Amino acid sequence: MNGNMIFAKRIKQLREENGDSQESLAVIFNYSKQAISNWEVSGKVPRSKVLEKLAERYETTSDYLLGFTDDPHSIRPSNETKKPKDLKRILEQHDIMFDGVPIDEDAKKEILHIVEFELYKRAKELNKRKKATPDS
Fold first, then answer.
1. Which of 93, 99, 107, 132 would you call most buried, defined as having the most Cβ atoms within 10 angstroms of its Cβ?
2. Per-residue pLDDT reduced to its tens digit, 33-80
3. Where is the HTH cro/C1-type domain (predicted)?
């Protein structure tokens, strides 16, 4: 067998743990469901860009997916501080799903609009409270 069976086992496990279906991964990565099945059954490893995106999606490393390490976070320096993720950038640059269903561009724009509106309302309310509170 030519496939990487560690990859097959790990990608299936991570997919299931994260509630992804083979169909949803096929849509996200622009592959057929059969290709996703081949990853999990025969250990066929996708091209490197897709492998990197899979590692990013499941918050691990390609080294872990391929079986070079058993530590899912092995290539990240231990003193690295985790940077917050920018929601706007995520919505603009990534394929995302809600409850296993891919979100289209129009829905992403609407989500961004709602978040911006709610943050604006919150900032306005906080400013109102500051003005109502006498300075110390």
1. 107
2. 999 999 999 999 998 889 999 999 999 998 899 888 888 877 644 444
3. 11-65
